[in-house]
Amino acid sequence: MPAASQTALQLLDLAELRRTRALLRHEVSQATHWRRIIQARLDLTVARAVLPARLGLEITDQVSPEALSTIPAFGDLLGIARRPGDSFPVDDLLRLRAAERSLGEYEAHVRRALMAATDALVERLEAVRAVP
Fold first, then answer.
1. 61-105 confidence digits (pLDDT tens)
2. Could you name the domain of life of the organism this protein comes from (predicted)?
3. Per the domain annotation, does 83 fall within a domain?
């Protein structure tokens, strides 16, 4: 954390330090949530680029007809995997990866700020406790 930010933390009273930590924790949570969304989009984009083959075609001798009857229709699976209007072009991969990388860097910065605020709060609480 930059020295200016550490100095600023030292100037905060106990309530302000707690509020700062709460804000930083919330920001980490938000950044993490955005990363999960972007990672899910990445996963879907890659998965939709090459869909799996039809199920059950090569194992008819290894499983019971009852088991095979539970397989959803291939057309239904395709319809669910590729709904009309959904757009998950492979071209998005570079943009999604760049967004995930940027979000990861931002989250790391916020986590460092949170650690610095936590350290400052702990030091302040120890100082208060040490006063007779």
1. 999 999 999 999 998 998 888 766 666 677 788 999 999 999 999
2. Bacteria
3. no
Classify residue 62: in a domain, yes or no. no
The single-letter code of the amino acid at 77 is: L
In a domain, 6, yes or no: yes
Q: What are phi and psi of 87, to 5 degrees?
A: -125, 110
Show Cβ contacts of residue 99 under 8 Å, excluding neighbours closer than 6 positions. Answer: 38
Which is nearest to 39 in space by CA: 103, 84, 90?
A: 103
Q: Which two tokens stand for residue 88?
A: 């998950």
Range of the domain at 22: 1-50+93-132
Residue-level pLDDT at 81 = 81
CA angle 95, 50, 41 (to 5 degrees): 35
pTM: 0.74
Q: Provide the domain count of the chain.
A: 1
Better-scored residue on pLDDT, 49 or 52: 52
Residues 95, 92: Cα–Cα separation, whole Å: 5
Distance (Å, rounded) from C-alpha 37 to C-alpha 50? 21
